[in-house]
Amino acid sequence: MAQGSRPDRVGDQIRAEIAELITREVHDPGIGFLTITRVKVTPDLQQARVLYTTIGDDKARAETGKALERAKPFLRRQIGRRLRLKHVPALEFFYDESIAQQDRIERIMLDLQAEREANPHLNDLPGDDDTDPAK
After folding, report:
1. Cα–Cα distance between 15 and 30 in angstroms, integer?
2. How far apart are CA 35 and CA 47, in angstroms?
3. Phi, then psi, of 130 in degrees rounded to 5
4. What's CA 121's distance to the chain center, in Å?
5. Is the pTM of this model over 0.85?
6. CATH topology classification for 5-118
7. Which residues, in sequence order, are bridge partners of residue 93?
8. Strand pairing report for 34-41 and 47-54
9. For 9-46, how does the pLDDT look when each residue is reduced to its tens digit (9 = 90+)?
10. Alpha-carbon distance 80 to 45, whole Å?
11. Cβ neighbours of 96 (radius 10 Å)
12. DSSP string covering 3-33, please?
């Protein structure tokens, strides 16, 4: 069995449980539209870094972070009961910046495509074609 397979499996189980618990049992109004994107568990299964995204501005993001911190003891207890681990990993919540970065890259690419469609003469600039200058 691979070294990292158990932490990955435990992380997947924790992600599923946290998502269900937040949806059904955590009734904190500070938690808005929230998605648990990934859970990274250390190889010794002592810590779990929970990555999440939320819809809204920076104020909503900060409020969601505070609400998750308030819900952390409840979530950890419930995970311990549901997964039956000897030691329940300590939960740490982090906002997942990768989704925002992907959106930014996609917007840039769409802007470039729109610019090329609006200015077809830009497609004919030297260096853009695949011809070999040595021929």
Report:
1. 20
2. 20
3. -95, 10
4. 40
5. no
6. GMP Synthetase; Chain A, domain 3 (3.30.300)
7. 50
8. antiparallel
9. 999 999 999 999 999 999 888 887 889 999 999 999 99
10. 13
11. 16
12. TTHHHHHHHHHHHHHHHHHHHHT---TT--S
